[in-house]
Amino acid sequence: MIIAGYITPNNSIGPYNLQLQTLDLSKCTHLFHMAVYVYSATDPTLRNPWDNAWQANISYAVIAGHAKNVSVSVTLGGGAELYPILRDNSLRAQLITNLVAFTLAPYYADGISIDWEGWEWQADRQQLQDLLIMDLRAALAPGKLISSYCGVYLPNLDRFNVSLVGSSYLDFICLGTYFESYRPTQTILNSWIAMGYPPEKLLAGNLLVAMELLGDGSLGREFCTWADIVTQLHPSDDQNSATGLTTPMVSHLLGDAEDHTPINGTLVWQGVNQWRTNTAYVRDNGIGGMVMFSVNYDVFLNPDNSILQAIYEEANATPTIKRHITITIIGSGTTSVGTQDVNDGEPFTVEAFPNSGWYFSRWEKDGQPYTTEAICLIPVVTTDMSLTAYFSQTAPTTATIIFSTSPSGIGEINPTGSQVYNVGQKVNVTAISSTSGWKFDHWSGAASGTLPTIEHTVTGDATIVAVFTEITTPPPSGGSTMLIAGGLGLIALMALMRKK
Q1: Where are the alpha helices (DSSP H) in 299-387?
Q2: Widest CA span of the chain, in angstroms?
Q3: Of the residues 73, 154, 341, 346, which has the maximum number of CB atoms within 10 A of its CB?
Q4: What is the rounded CA–CA span in Å between residue 265 and residue 100?
Q5: Mean pLDDT per 10-residue run, the chain (500 residues)?
Q6: Distance (Å, rounded) from C-alpha 214 to C-alpha 223?
Q7: Number of helical H runs and strand E runs in the chain
Q8: Domains of the chain by range and CATH?
Q9: In Å, what is the CA distance from 157 to each residue of 189, 228, 291?
Q10: How far apart are the first and last CA of the chain?
Q11: pLDDT number for residue 441
Q12: Looking at residue 116, what is its pLDDT?
């Protein structure tokens, strides 16, 4: 399973080399180093306007990553200025050459990641991105990686993402969302898989930013980076909620983030627990892996609440095997649960409810009669299975079974007394040797055999009797022989004495 860290150099949270030294890179398999941009719509020369030491930082990231056997890719960012460059064959070729240079000396990066956030939608967007990806694949040396970051914060942003054609040239597709309440990670993954994207190429992750949750459940415009938040937290603070964050401080952080508007909602962010849940889902469903945006912010967290640590632990935990249970209804009725996947080794229960004018008849398991009880219990699920609930407009035929013991008052039987069952129902009957000096011997009446627990199929009125017998103690063996032998020895001794 891939554990990728998306690195965003940020001098406000300390020197970049210190960030990487503090980060436990051994927990990662890949790093995506953000970012290089083109100078303008007519100049494909690459730069990073927010990081004066960006070239040295790339070199440092590659050295640090390779020391831990971690793959490092350089990320191409950009917006609307990429449209004219990608439309021009000559400029696109220059851009490809400039990108490939990062995989050569003196950088030796392992690949290129594309993070094109050009929100100005144009009809040839996916066609241009496909050209970039295909040209890049052709220019890179064999074994070099290409990945693409796709922002999926809102449903309408899916159109900005790589096409199925372009995805065939990619090694990874990083799917980034903000919060589960906006677009749940598992829903996004299933949507992309349904569209035909290979699940093994998908990396799921949330952005490490805090946002304003408004009263109606929507997210406000105000946000601040995870780095802003964690520098205000104390080791004892709960990093799965807003505990420990004072309202004035939160208002200050959010107000500074965009337009200085005071916060009028609640600060929210993805906590460790949600990352664990999503990682387990990715692990158990054959999805490529997880990507953490931005992993270098994680260094400020209490180690017990480190998101990277949580991802690593869940990724390497024993996978949960899922079993598929198909629920089918014949006739008119409902069931308490429908078709679903359950964990291997766990029990499963489903109850049948007939509609008005109908009667529950029976459950069948994999086409075979299972129980006439409305509640169907599978004690331990070990395989996929189908369960079918049958309903009938004819009331089921009933029968009375009388359970007793013989002699009366000796031992116990379960069930006991007079019980009414549907014809065809299977009933487990157990004899219990609870009376001192007595033991279960055999069954009589409508049942037979000597095992203490039997399964009886109801065919009509009947009596089932558990027969007990008294435990007797036999006389000790060998006593008479010893007496006779002793007597003969005494006679022989007396005869010998007379001869003397």
Answers
A1: 307-315
A2: 141
A3: 73
A4: 45
A5: 86 66 88 91 91 88 94 92 94 97 96 82 86 96 94 64 89 82 83 92 80 63 54 48 43 43 55 84 94 76 72 91 94 96 94 96 92 93 96 91 96 95 89 95 96 93 96 66 43 50
A6: 12
A7: 12, 27
A8: 2-208+270-315 (3.20.20.80), 322-392 (2.60.40), 398-470 (2.60.40)
A9: 14, 27, 19
A10: 102
A11: 97
A12: 84
State the residue for tokens 């290089």: 36
DSSP-derived secondary structure for 214-254: PTTS-EEEEEEEHHHHHTT--TTS-TTSSTT--HHHHHHHH
pLDDT of the residue at 422? 86
Instruction: Report d(CA 392, CA 390) in Å as an integer.
Output: 7
Q: Is 244 left (phi over 0), alpha (psi -120 to 50) or beta?
A: left
**CA dist 254 → 167, 216, 469 (Å):** 37, 19, 83
In this structure, are strands 375-378 and 348-354 parallel, antiparallel, or unpaired? Answer: antiparallel
Give me the sign of the Cα torsion angle 184, 190, 193, 199: positive
Query: Computed from CA positions of residues 122, 126, 130, 132, in that sequence, does the dihedral angle turn out positive or negative?
Result: positive
Identify the burial level of 3 via C-beta atoms within 10 angstroms of its C-beta, where 0-12 means exposed, 13-18 middle and 19 or more buried.
Answer: buried
Are the C-beta atoms of 208 and 180 separated by less than 8 Å?
Answer: no
The tokens 């299933």 sit on which residue? Answer: 190
Task: Classify strands 30-40 and 2-7 as parallel, antiparallel or unpaired.
Answer: parallel
Task: Find, among 202, 370, 353, the residue nearest to 290 by Cα.
Answer: 202
